[in-house]
Amino acid sequence: MITTLARTANRLVEGAAVLLLIAMLASVFLGVIFRFINQPLAWTDEMAQYLLVWTAFTGWIIAGNRGSHIRIVMFLDALKGRPRLAAEVVIQLLVAVLGMVLLTKSFGLIARNSDVEWVSLPLPVALVYLPIPIAGLAVVIRCGVEILAALRGQLHVAQQGPSL
Prior knowledge:
This protein has one domain. 73% of the residues lie in helices and 0% in strands. α1 runs antiparallel to α2, α2 packs parallel to α6 and α4 packs antiparallel against α6. About 3% of the residues have low confidence. It is mainly alpha-helical.
């Protein structure tokens, strides 16, 4: 059940990334076309910038789930056994702390910007910050799963990704 739920969540995030990328490309394309005919649309640049932020956070979640973030493992590879396990757990705990900071602090950021509008559209600036708590929660959950996997002796997900 949990595996099915995780797979479904991953598919939803990947689908959202595709939709965000298409929307960003459409915004840029419209901006270029309308500039070409000397009728520029004021909102396309700002929309593309905000969609880029959303796409970046979505990509962060996807890369974390796939273990495709770059890790510098020169010192970790020198460790074996319990020291390696301890280092992996400490690293994941630190990343989880970052996720918790994002999760807890982002709501204040969203609230402070809920009454501020975009320059070119009557939308709240808070929209640009909405992916922050989602990404923070995803990071905390993923770190918890990776800590449990490490404690069970299973291969760390991020070890399968690129490393230096």
